[in-house]
Amino acid sequence: MKNSLITGLSLMALLLAAEITVAQTGRMDSDLVGRTSKIEFDRMNKEGAATVAAITPANSALSKADDHLMRQVAMGGLMQLETSKVAVQKSTNPEVREMAQAEVEEQTGLSAKLTAIAAAKGITLPTTPDAKTQAMVSQMQGMSGVELDRHYVREHAVKGHELLDKTLSKVESKGQDSNLLAVANAAHPLVKTHLKVARELNSKLKSGKAMNSGQ
């Protein structure tokens, strides 16, 4: 009788400890985006946005090569912006929405600064998505749930940032215009941060460890 009572109490203690662990894990995961804390992620996003916003447009003319590079940055950012808007609208995963919302804010600020720089130089940048981006958006509109989350994070949060990373590296190595270089230097650290977080989140989604809706 005594042994049965001890066994029963021990089992209750184990169950209680398991519940506490699950609750603590849930709370910890709710404070993360990928493996990065939301507080740190938000801090880096605000810091990056402020650095881009501080750039003062100059009216110096762009060379043909710099004009091409600026358009590459603008179109890459526009693709990220449009696909991320869909993820914000349709995803039910808190971490995916957090990633996508940060991307929308980053690319909105970057687009505004590029537009201001282009206007100062007397040129016009694309303001609407091209056919490739429209096709990507349409594809995502037909998705939902885990399929949408995994597709967005893999194809746009990860691969999209890998492309932007390469484009900005090209600008930093080949660009000549001071404004264009300033944009690349200001935006690149945040692009690298988003790529890191996106890879972390992609790994969690693959393993099924990313937060689900309602958690």
From TrEMBL:
DUF4142 domain mapped to chain residues: 65-201
Keywords: Signal
UniProt KW Kinase keyword: no
Domain of life: Bacteria
Database matches in InterPro entries: DUF4142, Ferritin-like
Signal peptide from the UniProt entry: 1-23
PANTHER family: BLR2558 PROTEIN (PTHR38593:SF1)
Name of the protein described by the UniProt record: DUF4142 domain-containing protein
Source species of the chain: Fibrella forsythiae
